[in-house]
């Protein structure tokens, strides 16, 4: 019977792969409103999984969808604002 063992270098991530960089953390922080809005939408949808949706549930889901769309729009506008140098450029 042969011993099957993992090679340590393959199992363990390289040193530079262990922690997110400052740029990655900044990108996550910029996307946090979108992430939060999507979690709220998911929570509203999960509530309705085990019972019929009431009018209040429907309103909660609509409000959460609007919040997700607004957060995505704001994030897209922030991303575009950084890449555009000026009008007509």
Folded structure, characterized:
- With 89 residues, this protein is mostly helical.
- 66% of the residues lie in helices and 0% in strands.
- It is built from three helices and no strands.
- The chain is flat, with a radius of gyration of 22 Å.
- 2% of the residues are buried.
- The model has no long low-confidence stretch (mean pLDDT 84).
Notable traits:
mainly alpha; 0% strand; 89 residues
Let me know the largest β-sheet: none
**Rg value:** 22 Å
The number of helical elements comes to 3
Judged by helices, strands and strand pairing, the structural class is: mainly alpha
Shape: flat
- SSE string: HHH
Mean pLDDT across residues: 84
Give the N-to-C terminal Cα separation: 70 Å
Helices and strands in order:
Layout lengths: L7 H4 L10 H26 L7 H29 L6
Helix pairs in contact: 2-3
Quick rundown:
By secondary structure, the protein is mainly α. 66% of the residues lie in helices and 0% in strands. It has helices at 8-11, 22-47, 55-83.
């Amino acid at each position: 019977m042969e011993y099957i063992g993992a090679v340590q270098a393959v199992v363990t991530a390289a040193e530079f792969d262990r922690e997110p960089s400052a740029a990655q953390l900044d990108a996550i922080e910029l996307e946090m409103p979108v992430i939060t809005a999507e979690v709220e939408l998911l929570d509203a949808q999960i509530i309705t999984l085990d019972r019929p949706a009431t009018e209040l549930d429907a309103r909660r889901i609509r409000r959460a969808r609007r919040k997700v769309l607004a957060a995505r729009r704001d994030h897209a506008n922030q991303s575009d604002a950084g890449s555009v140098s000026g009008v007509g450029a």
